[in-house]
Amino acid sequence: MSNRLPAAAAILLSLGAPASAHRLDEYLQATIVSVEKDRVQAFMRLIPGVAVSSIVIPSIDTNGDGIVSDSERQSYAERVLGDLSLSIDGHPLKPRLVSVDCTGIGEMKEGLGEIRIEFSADLPRGHGSRRLIFENRHQSRIAAYLVNCLMPRDKTIQIAAQNRNENQSYYQLDYRQAGGRSDPLSSLGTIALLLSAGLVLLLRLRARRGRSRAASRQSNHAGMPDAPRERPVRRILGYLPPAWIRSTDR
Asked: Which domain holds residue 214?
């Protein structure tokens, strides 16, 4: 589990509920969302106040033995996820439980306990403007919701806007994601432009070389007499071994 999510959730809770103003009659639920290229991660902290702990605890400790077993933690976390909805660009996503942990029943009765849930969901491929919507309906009659997002680590993802309803049970995240497939026509136009530029450069280089060679030949003809042409015999001898040349000169 990334340390950024729990730390951000703690900051979100401290901003939403100062320690001197502990919520006694509310079930505080703070969610931090983190968007990546191929998935979304979220971390929830659920803190029942003293006045509502008698409602929350029986839904966790279902057998009433005062101990929260692993199966009870797992079952409660799955029920929480069942009260959430998550979608990207209008397409529903299925949250997948990553981890769950909680403090003891005694701490919850005193308003000091909490449940920590981490979940994730795979994102379909996409690029350009994207919209993530998160809704929380868990224990809505006694709940106080808080939700925010982390700044993406991926530089290709840029947060555009965040919108919430009044009680923050509804959260909308608009962002832009680069790195998608480019327009084929645009790609062909770019290739054609590069080829044209390369052809122009090649023609210019050939023209420049032609002018240089012409100028060089003119200067040679102006300052020097024409060099005698090499006789065919001597040209042939140039390709023969030295021993053969000596025997021919005799």
From this structure: 183-220
